[in-house]
Amino acid sequence: MLAARAFLDAEIGDQSVLTREEQEAEMQWFIDAAQPLSGMSINVVSETITTHEYESRVLAPAFTAITGIQVTHDLIGEGDVVEKLQTQMQTGENVYDLYINDADLDGTHWRYQQVRNITDWMAGEGADFTNPGLDLDDFIGLAQATAPDDKLYQLPVQQFANLYWFRHDWFTDPEIMAEFRAEYGYDLGVPVNWSAYEDIAKFFTGREIDGQQVYGNMDYGKKDPSLGWRFTDAWLSMAGASDKGEPNGFPVDEWGIRVNDNFQPVGSCMARGGATNSPAAVYAIEKYIDWLQNYTPPAAAGMTFSEAGPVPAQGNIAQQMFWYTAFTADMVKEGLPVMNDDGTPKWRMAPSPYGAYWEEGMKVGYQDVGAATLMQSTPVDRAQAAWLYAQFIVSKTVDTKKSHVGLTFVRDSTVRHESFTERAPQLGGLVEFYRSPDRVRWSDTGANIPDYPRLAQLWWQNIGDASSGAKTAQEALDALCEQQEDVLSRLERSGVQGDLGPVLNEEQDPQYWIDQPGAPVAKLENEKPAPVTIAYEELIKRWQE
């Protein structure tokens, strides 16, 4: 308890939704629960983002000092996390005791049954090690880690949405606004659709503002694993390629994979009822390439996700369609060209614009939910120790402070804490978004994906061929959907996923599926409908209601 009090004094203070007395009571519970496991050493792995750096650097040593359980919390690339997880799934060897990996793998975990589902775990072998103050109802992303069997497979540890980012100071500059209206005939504002985004990108690119050349778009294009999630993270549904449905399109999702009523994947190509190579998907890729080539800094085409992320903070980017709120912490640092002297940002975040094929009811955008995952192949006592650590890093005692560092909210009580009411003006709309009902409309990859590691790697390789010019968008997506169906076919033949695995449709003329309701749909004669913008001040009211 001495270690716990020292930690609370030095690190937490009043940045907690709990009183000091309640904090100490929660710490006492961890001390008591950990007693049978004291002296054990466990290994944890997560991707390298600010939130997990804080967990590894501050929370892991504190947990060790308080509980006597030695934690080594490794930080590696997201693709490497998935690779380690895949290795453990394939070999059964216990590589890590706890994975903090995206709930995008929910459909994979549900079908393979190689992870301990949290629902049954808390009622069984994990019962004595489950914090009575965990309060699952307080978590805002549980639906994203819950499979169609209504079991929770992973516990959210951090989450961040993919939103639209723009320079509010430029967009509200009277001179710039007048020039835009004179050139385009409508008001400069937050683009509601891709048509307006493209006009704004064209308008800003090549202009000189604040003594530097400005670009109207930021993105990345290197043929690298990070290029994959640039597209699997709902880009096709934002364009309008999927079916309607929230949190994910059904029966066709944002990867273009169709499932039957039992959630068994039946196809990815249009010939089997999928939409991965549909006209809307081709449009989505072509727009990405067009904007990358014409409105983006030339170096971006050779950048990865992590290299491109900090670029808007340098001050020469007007807007970014596909911007992760995980970058917020690095965007609000004092002295940056995108920050005002009073600590408020010159930029804002807003809902993502949608493409020409999008209709109301389709998925609006992506949200990453990094979640604690316990593998069946991890010995029970090690899993129990890992479960204690997972709960510690999202406990009500520490979550508010952790969220101030990483700005990746998982608890409703945290985002409503008075300290975030005070800080909201410095965060460009983040707090307003996470206090609004919209926070659950942005979602992760859904249950249609039966083997995320195998399927995800196909995306960056094929999209990379399109972004490099080696293939047209249509050729790249034809190859992608065929390769996805090869994986689905192998899973079907193996029978390893039982009644939850793929059952591919017979191929037929794609026109048959185009004639059916929903995705895939025929090519539009006009893929640039009338542009629509909205004033940010009007838009933000929706989040503040």
TrEMBL record:
Keywords, ordered alphabetically: Cell membrane, Lipoprotein, Membrane, Palmitate, Signal
Keyword hit for Hydrolase: no
GO molecular-function term, one example from the UniProt record: transmembrane transporter activity
Pfam short name (any one): SBP_bac_1
PANTHER family in the cross-refs: ARABINOSE-BINDING PROTEIN-RELATED, POLYGALACTURONAN_RHAMNOGALACTURONAN-BINDING PROTEIN YTCQ
Name used for this protein in its record: ABC transporter substrate-binding protein
Organism (species): Pleodorina starrii
Gene name per UniProt: PLESTB003180
